[in-house]
């Protein structure tokens, strides 16, 4: 009855999603809407009323649908604990000014919506545990998240703005366990030190060495205070042409909690494998310009499951994968490697590989 999809590169979670078998879906939706949740969209706008329920999803794809938002202030929905807002249009036009949210809300998602600014009234949701702000447009976030003391899951947007160029204050969120898209340019890294329950952190650094140094320091400090924590980091436009910048990158590779790394920028070299954390499961390198001998480092990382080399991340003419290498690698992508001519894979190398992509390698010829 239930089909389970596993994560390609397990970090915090082993499973990506669960879904009901298609033959049971209609039956489960019917029973669920009777006792468990409601889905409101233009398909059932005339047949479904906002009778008491604990969980609700609103599909807002026309102006008339804002009547549902207005009804959120009705006493019939005061007991709501979960609300998902889905809108392909500007949701800002549908949200009343000074909107009073159902006070019992524990889960609130704007994922995929077009939302210009987060309503400051969100700060009144003192029971909120899960907040998803991954909207499909840049958003202005007022500094009210500090009031959400019970927040456990916070999903920020990759790019957002703060009023008056302030930094987003998160220090008071002591219960945070999952924090995604933390940006040291918009948030205070020192706030991480107060999150004693943090188990997973994902962050993006935009080419600024001082920001990366702060994140590395925060990761090291947090790993000493938290019992279980994994980290994912995306680094953009960070060329390491100087020893100082390269030393910062080497320090990052030593972080014990680092699980996935997305690096965009010149490296030229990487340290030997025993100076790299053994926890890495996924590496994406873009423009790194590594040479042939560096494959002997990558193939020794014991938990590596996904490796993507893109835009001359590898500049050797010949790539060799030895028989004892890449024991856990499941996915390999070689994309736009202009210098690659031959690729030799010894028998026994990559024994569990299931996904392979070789694209735009103009001089490569398969033997």
TrEMBL record:
InterPro entries, per the entry: LRR_dom_sf, LRR_R13L4/SHOC2-like
Keywords: Repeat
Stretches assigned to the Disease resistance R13L4/SHOC-2-like LRR domain: 103-359
Keyword Chaperone: no
Keyword Repeat among record annotations: yes
The organism's place on the tree of life at top rank: Eukaryota
Alphabetized Pfam families for the sequence: LRR_14
Record-given protein name: Disease resistance R13L4/SHOC-2-like LRR domain-containing protein
Protein's organism: Olea europaea subsp. europaea
């Amino acid at each position: 009855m239930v089909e389970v999809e596993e994560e390609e590169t397990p970090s915090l979670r082993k499973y990506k999603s669960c879904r009901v078998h298609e033959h049971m879906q209609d039956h489960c939706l019917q029973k669920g809407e009777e006792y468990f949740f409601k889905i409101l969209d233009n398909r059932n706008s005339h047949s479904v009323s906002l009778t008491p329920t604990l969980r609700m999803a609103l599909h807002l794809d026309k102006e008339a649908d804002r009547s549902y938002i207005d009804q959120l202030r009705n006493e019939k929905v005061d007991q709501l604990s979960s609300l998902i807002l889905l809108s392909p249009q500007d949701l800002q036009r549908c949200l009343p000014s000074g909107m009073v949210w159902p006070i019992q809300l524990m889960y609130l998602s704007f994922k995929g919506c077009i939302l210009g600014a987060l309503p400051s009234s969100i700060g009144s949701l003192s029971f909120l545990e899960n907040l998803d702000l991954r909207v499909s447009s840049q958003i202005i976030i007022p500094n009210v998240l500090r009031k959400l003391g019970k927040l456990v899951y916070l999903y920020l947007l990759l790019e957002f703005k703060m009023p008056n160029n302030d930094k987003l204050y998160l220090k008071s969120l002591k219960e945070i366990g999952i924090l995604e898209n933390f940006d040291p340019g918009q948030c205070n890294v020192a706030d991480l030190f107060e999150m004693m329950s943090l188990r997973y952190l994902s962050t993006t650094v935009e080419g600024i060495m001082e920001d990366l140094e702060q994140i590395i320091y925060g990761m090291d400090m947090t790993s000493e205070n938290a019992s279980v924590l994994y980290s994912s980091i995306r680094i953009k436009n960070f060329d390491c042409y100087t020893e100082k910048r390269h030393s910062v990158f080497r320090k990052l590779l030593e972080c014990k909690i680092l699980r996935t790394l997305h690096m965009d920028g010149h490296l030229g070299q990487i340290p030997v494998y025993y100076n790299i954390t053994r926890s890495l499961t996924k590496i994406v390198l873009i423009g790194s310009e590594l040479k042939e001998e560096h494959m002997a480092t990558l193939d020794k990382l014991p938990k590596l499951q996904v490796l993507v080399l893109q835009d001359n991340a590898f500049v050797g003419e010949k790539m060799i994968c030895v028989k004892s290498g890449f024991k856990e690698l499941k996915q390999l992508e070689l994309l736009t490697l202009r210098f690659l001519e031959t690729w030799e894979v010894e028998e026994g190398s990559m024994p569990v590989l299931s996904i392979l992509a070789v694209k735009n390698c103009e001089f490569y010829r398969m033997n």
